[in-house]
Design brief:
The chain is α+β, with helices and mostly antiparallel strands. The chain folds into 3 domains: 188 residues, no CATH class; 133 residues, Jelly Rolls (Sandwich), CATH 2.60.120.10; 30 residues. 58% of the residues lie in helices and 10% in strands. The strands form 3 sheets. It has a 4-stranded antiparallel β-sheet. It has a 4-stranded antiparallel β-sheet with strand order 2-9-4-7. It is rod-shaped and about 150 Å long. The chain starts with a helix and ends with a helix.
């Protein structure tokens, strides 16, 4: 193998190591951060891995550069001596010769900086690591050199006047500083996250209690909920009751919604006669809703897409005329050619959107969904449960809930039976009283 090919191979290997490392980091670092997400400890461990990998790369460059520097010194020595050696005398297939003069012109043991200064590569040449055939020994020695000098930012490196050598030390210093900042920064973030997690858990639980009145649940359900609170607290986003409930087991989620919503649903006249199975299905469909103070929930003339069951807060129901007159008392409005008494203010336990019940019993066509004859505005922050029109329609169809005529007939039969029963009891009591007198 010619000396030119050996030199070209060494140069290619040296630069390919550095270029390969840079290209891999550009590719891997953003992809890894996206995969790790909010796992701070994993990001810190990944930055430590980058630090170790960079130490290996700089150690390898130091090793190759030391060999290259010594080879260049030998070739220069041949040019200044009349011993018959040339630049190609150090090729693998060149004949043997007397090259003792190289120890005088390129002294490494001991070093003579007045003749030639090897700079940061003196240790590699003086320790003999470039001559050792054992690869693990070479690898560990070069890795230790890279790790030590990255950690101290190259402060202990004494360079010569060689331009490449000074550039290499500058690169070591900057790389060590950047990698150390990333590593320490991510470790600090991880420690701060662990320290502040208990406080965040407390605040998240308080916020969750505000949006979902846990105190209204039975003690057994509250105990089950506490078991799963740690999974809810780990969510990085702000508290979302619906997503928090979705984490819980299906049975516990159903029990929570049932205890919170069942009494609210039974406030609706038509729902009181429904089977428990239908009520459970409606409880599964309701979703938590929150409206800030002064928020317009529905405007006059808008379609009514959901029923609202107020858990906490206060809403004002008004027409455009009532708003102009500043009315805040109980009023009467015409709806479907019938006079229905409505309160202007709805509070805890009240509901709005009863028109949907009549609609789903009468028509069930989304094209004929009822329009709101009044506007609805939150006077305070309102926490409620919403039952969407399509969910109500789906439950009624799936469970084959009777139509409005059947509802009315059921009411008539029950009322008639109740009247007959009372009349019979009254007649029976009168007969017993008459017998006792006689």
């Amino acid at each position: 193998m010619s000396g030119l090919k050996i030199l070209s191979g060494m140069m290619l290997l040296k630069y390919s190591v550095l270029i390969q490392f840079v290209l891999r980091m550009i590719r891997i670092y953003p992809w890894t951060l996206g995969k790790l997400g909010e796992a701070t400890w994993a990001i810190a461990a990944f930055n430590l891995l980058l630090y170790v990998l960079a130490s290996h790369v700089f150690g390898a460059l130091w090793y190759f550069s030391a060999i290259e520097r010594q080879t260049e010194c030998w070739k220069k020595a041949c040019l200044f001596n009349n011993t018959g050696c040339t630049r190609g005398s150090f090729d693998c297939y060149d004949s043997l010769g007397n090259y003792e003069f190289l120890n005088e012109f390129c002294p490494t043991k001991p070093q003579n900086t007045t003749i030639l200064d090897f700079g940061i590569f003196q240790h590699a040449l003086q320790s003999g690591i470039v001559e050792v055939p054992d690869f693990p020994q070479k690898f560990l020695h070069c890795f230790r050199w890279g790790l030590r000098n990255l950690s101290c930012f190259g402060q202990n490196l004494q360079t010569s006047s060689n331009a490449w050598e000074n550039f290499f030390v500058i690169l070591v210093t900057i790389s060590g500083l950047v990698l150390m900042l990333f590593l320490i920064g991510n470790i600090q973030i991880y420690l701060q996250t662990k320290a502040t997690r208990p406080k965040e858990m407390t605040l998240r639980m308080q916020e969750m209690n505000e949006h979902m009145p846990i105190q209204k649940l039975s003690r057994s359900v509250q105990q089950q909920l506490k078991i799963y609170q740690r999974y809810i607290w780990r969510k990085p986003d702000t508290i979302d009751v619906e997503s928090s409930l979705s984490i819980l087991p299906k049975e516990l989620r159903r029990n929570i919604k049932r205890e919170l919503c069942l009494d609210l649903l039974k406030n609706v006249k038509e729902f009181k006669t429904l089977d428990e199975e239908v009520l459970d299905a409606l409880c599964d469909c309701v979703k938590p809703a929150f409206y800030f103070k002064h928020t317009h929930i529905v405007l006059e003339g808008d379609p009514i897409y959901e029923m609202l069951f107020i858990v906490q807060g206060k809403m004002w129901i008004y027409t455009s005329k009532e708003r102009t007159n500043g009315s805040a008392n109980t009023s009467h409005s015409r709806d479907n050619s019938k006079f229905i008494s409505r309160k202007d203010h709805l509070a805890d336990g009240d509901f709005w959107g009863e028109e949907l019940v009549a609609w789903v019993l009468r028509d069930r066509s989304l094209s004929n969904i009822p329009m709101s004859t009044r506007s609805v505005q939150a006077l305070k922050n309102v926490e409620a449960f919403g039952l969407m029109a399509h969910d109500l329609k789906h439950v009624f169809i799936e469970h084959q809930v009777a139509s409005s005529t059947e509802f009315n007939s059921n009411y008539s039969v029950k009322d008639a039976a109740r009247i007959i029963q009372l009349a019979w009891r009254r007649r029976y009591s009168s007969r017993n009283l008459l017998k006792s007198v006689l």
